[in-house]
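FORM 7B: Structural annotation worksheet

SECTION A. Query
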Amino acid sequence: MSTARNNQPGSPSGRPPERKSPDLARGTSADEQPRSGEGPESQSPLWRSIPVRLAAWHTLIYLTATLVVFIAGYMLLSRWVDEQESHLIQQRLHQFRLQYDRDGLRGVHEMCQQRLLRTSRTYFVRLLNDSGEQLFQRDPQDWDGFPLDSLPANPKPELRWNEVDGPDNLLLRVASQRTKDGVTLQVGKTLELRDEILGRFRTAWIGIGLFLGAVGAAGGVYATRRALAPVAQLTANAQAIMDTGDFSRRIRGARTRDELDELVGCFNGMLEKIERLIAGMRDALDNVAHDLRTPMTRLRHNALRAVEGNLDQPQCIHALGDCLEESDRVLTLLSNLMDIAEAESGALSFKRQELSLHPLGLKILDLYSDLAEEKQVALHVHLPEELRVDGEEIRLFRAIANLVDNALKYSGPGGSVRLTGSLRSGTVHIEVADQGCGIPQDELPRIWERLYRVDRSRDLKGLGLGLSLVKAIVEAHGGSVGVVSEFGKGSRFLLQFPAASRPAPKPAA
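SECTION B. Predicted structure
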């Protein structure tokens, strides 16, 4: 059998929308066009550009990470410097207390006199008696402006810490400890060095942050533009396709095997599929035009003959009958196209019920026995009672009858056509085999396409929709189709359906 098996049997009766502004969508007139400065929506602000936004996010994340590192480093450094300052104060307090315990007030005074030449403040040293009166203070002029009266005497032997705010936001940290004779020894130190270290740290990190922010922004723009280069190519090619209608264009991928490379591959695959669909649509339109031209020409010729031929009543009735036959042929073509389209889209509605295929086999045998005898072809039908499926009888009959009709049509005298069925592993298998002309191997993948017919098949009457309709009906019933053919030796069409959910009733004893 040839690809012309798509014929129907004679007896049994498939640029994204542009975003428009509300004014343009309503049909803005020439007088209502945007004024100067109100450019079209395609002229998006710079911040809407994906590279700019990605670069901004990249820079923001970069700066946020830098800020987090700065805060953590600042806190660690501040804590470490505080600990060092406190350790130095406590160490110096321990030295003065030992000196006081050994030589008293004189020893502390002598120890304070050891550093005469200095360029900065010395350690703050003071002695207080039990009543809080000052016994000694080292270099009082260094501590003018500091509220030293707020530092009380330490009534306990444990170490006590105090801080005093001085001029120019200078902080004095003081450690107090009670000696054996009840005198409070206070030793302190300003935190100038700590503030200087932390200030330099802040200044350095501000400069580093600005530098890293600039590098991050520049690197982000470069990286995103380079990474999104395939997207720009996609956009350019899509625009070129919309402008020219040339779907043969393809994008050359970077072969990086990343997500964007996969996107390029998917886009090229989509273009290839669209190109095939458009070519198929053109072929389908050519086939429809070819198949409709003949019946429409005959219909017009018969109607014109009846109108202008001055025919008698029997001749007019015959002409009207020919018109009806041709119009039925056109309606059948259109109806089958609609059925195929509905089935392929999943919108085909039919009433499912459990039915046996055995009665369908008997109907097919009765319908085609005369045609088989006329063509001198042996027709064998064997569909057992246990073959039961869930579906609609009329549509299943139509699908199977199409295959039998094609098999008879392309079988020569002395050949045979077999319609057989079997039940295997919960699946109903139906086979239509013939000894006809067969189908060329290069045509097998396309025989299920609607309106696809080989040139030699056009010598035979048909609509080119038979196999398309068979495939649509079978798949709508949850089944599948297949074909095995050898050119010049015949073909076997295979249908598979899920068996009915309930077992077949047992025959009465």
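SECTION C. Observations
Confidence is low (pLDDT under 50) at residues 1-43, 455-464. DSSP finds nine helices and twelve strands in the chain.

SECTION D. Sign-off
Analyst initials: ____
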